[in-house]
């Protein structure tokens, strides 16, 4: 038990409800069937337990966390417990009054996501006519109230050529850092991958442009940081997913399911609920959290590989989604016998698929997806 780390990073997915419809959303495809949400008291209890176990950072996420009417109560409670708190939002539902109230409640940090640097592409991807304008106004207000602000752009084939404009916009809005994160292919992004994965040439150019801006910002002594996150589909080694299974990250889903990562719900593993077990029991003793700790579970080639301490065999969700078995080597690794599925996905990045052809993340599509699963 002593070898198990502390759950330093708590992600509270307060709800799966969201007014937007991003086709790359990482929420589960069948989110519409999950209607129950933890109450204010239950969330506060989770925060208390996590803090007592050593958790220091708390992200409020979703769905769109702003649809929870008790958000300022949750922020205040987390702040009083001593958490560093971060609101991860689309900005839709934010108002000046809320920004001021959250500040008063002790919120440290706000991350606003944009779908693109121009209103047409942004609003087409978000499935909402006035989303871009509202995000702009909210980002200005977030800085007016002196928050630390991250602007997040999920990058894919339909907006990657706007990278310079995204950076310019972020600088103009006074962002402290900018996350240019190429889609990670889970949930709805996996469903739409053929229409989202950029080509290698697009990626190379986007990274070059980002580096030029980094150099320029450094010359100007700007404190704005540019973070470019690449998809591992163009790598030959996988990422050390979540810095290791059940090592640092603890996610609580809206209905109280505890997960080692927000995508793990799809795995054929029974994960515990905070309504039924304490966080202490969940973190240290539950089958779900111990499932991929250590390396005894690893098959070859990972088991005898001298890189297994670096990447832990990659992402279990990716292995499950792309090979059908969560124990398999992540197929991103060139040593995996399934690596050809990654090469096929790279070729599909040349396909012509429009924004309109992507499947929007909304409850109608989610429900139809559930019925497909049930019929099969
Ligand atoms: S990615 Fe888009 S649809 Fe998904 S929760 Fe965030 S804003 Fe909503
Ligand atoms: S074989 Fe397994 S441990 Fe080795 S590099 Fe590939 S994924 Fe990592």
UniProtKB/TrEMBL annotation:
The pathway noted for it is:
Cofactor biosynthesis; pyrroloquinoline quinone biosynthesis
A GO MF term = S-adenosyl-L-methionine binding
Question: Start and end of every Radical SAM core domain?
Answer: 4-220
List keywords of the entry alphabetically. Answer: 4Fe-4S, Iron, Iron-sulfur, Metal-binding, Oxidoreductase, PQQ biosynthesis, S-adenosyl-L-methionine
Q: What is its EC number?
A: 1.21.98.4
GO BP of this protein: molybdopterin cofactor biosynthetic process; pyrroloquinoline quinone biosynthetic process
What does the note accompanying the cofactor annotation read? Answer: Binds 1 [4Fe-4S] cluster. The cluster is coordinated with 3 cysteines and an exchangeable S-adenosyl-L-methionine.
Against InterPro entries, the record matches this protein to: 4Fe4S-binding_SPASM_dom, Aldolase_TIM, Elp3/MiaA/NifB-like_rSAM, MoaA_NifB_PqqE_Fe-S-bd_CS, PQQ_synth_PqqE_bac, PqqE-like, Radical_SAM_PqqE_MftC-like, rSAM
Q: Enumerate the residues binding [4Fe-4S] cluster.
A: 18, 22, 25
Stretch forming the signal peptide: none
Q: Which cofactor does it need?
A: [4Fe-4S] cluster
| PROSITE patterns registered for this protein in UniProt | MOAA_NIFB_PQQE, RADICAL_SAM
One Pfam family per UniProt:
SPASM
Which reactions is this enzyme annotated as catalysing? Answer: [PQQ precursor protein] + S-adenosyl-L-methionine = E-Y cross-linked-[PQQ precursor protein] + 5'-deoxyadenosine + L-methionine + H(+)
Function description = Catalyzes the cross-linking of a glutamate residue and a tyrosine residue in the PqqA protein as part of the biosynthesis of pyrroloquinoline quinone (PQQ).
Family to which the UniProt record says this protein belongs:
Belongs to the radical SAM superfamily. PqqE family.
* Subunit comment: Interacts with PqqD. The interaction is necessary for activity of PqqE.
Supply the name of the protein. Answer: PqqA peptide cyclase
Naturally occurring in which organism (per UniProt): Acinetobacter gerneri DSM 14967 = CIP 107464 = MTCC 9824
């Amino acid at each position: 038990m002593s070898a198990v780390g502390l759950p330093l990073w708590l992600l509270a997915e307060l709800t799966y409800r969201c007014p937007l419809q991003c086709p790359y959303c990482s929420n589960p495809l069948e989110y519409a069937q999950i209607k129950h949400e933890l109450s204010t008291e239950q969330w506060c209890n989770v925060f208390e337990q996590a803090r007592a176990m050593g958790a220091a950072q708390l992200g409020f996420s979703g769905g769109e966390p702003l649809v929870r009417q008790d958000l300022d109560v949750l922020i205040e409670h987390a702040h009083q417990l001593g958490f560093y708190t971060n609101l991860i939002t689309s900005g839709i539902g934010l108002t000046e009054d809320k920004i001021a109230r959250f500040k008063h409640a002790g919120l440290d940090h706000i991350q606003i996501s944009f779908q693109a640097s121009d209103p047409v592409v942004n609003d087409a991807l978000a499935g909402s006519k006035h989303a871009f304008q509202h995000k702009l106004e909210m980002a200005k207000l977030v800085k007016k109230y002196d928050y630390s602000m991250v602007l997040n752009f999920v990058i894919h084939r339909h907006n990657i050529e706007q990278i310079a404009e995204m950076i310019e916009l972020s600088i103009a809005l006074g962002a402290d850092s900018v996350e240019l994160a190429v889609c990670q292919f889970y949930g709805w992004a996996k469903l739409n991958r053929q229409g989202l994965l950029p080509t290698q040439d697009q990626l190379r150019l986007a990274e070059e442009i980002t580096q030029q801006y980094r150099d320029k910002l450094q010359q100007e002594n700007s404190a704005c940081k540019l973070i470019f996150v690449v998809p591992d589909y163009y790598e030959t080694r996988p990422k050390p997913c979540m810095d290791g299974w059940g090592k640092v990250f603890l996610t609580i889903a809206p209905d109280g399911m505890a997960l080692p990562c927000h995508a793990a719900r799809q795995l054929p593993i029974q994960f515990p609920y905070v309504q039924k077990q304490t966080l202490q029991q969940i973190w240290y003793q539950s089958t779900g959290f111990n499932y991929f700790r250590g390396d005894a579970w690893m098959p070859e080639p990972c088991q005898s590989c001298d890189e297994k301490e670096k990447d832990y065999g990659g992402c279990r969700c990716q292995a499950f989604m792309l090979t059908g078995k969560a124990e398999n080597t992540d197929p991103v690794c060139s040593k995996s016998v399934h690596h050809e599925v990654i090469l096929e996905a790279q070729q599909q990045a040349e396909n012509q698929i429009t924004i309109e052809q992507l499947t929007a993340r909304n409850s109608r599509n989610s429900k139809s997806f559930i019925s497909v699963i049930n019929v099969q």
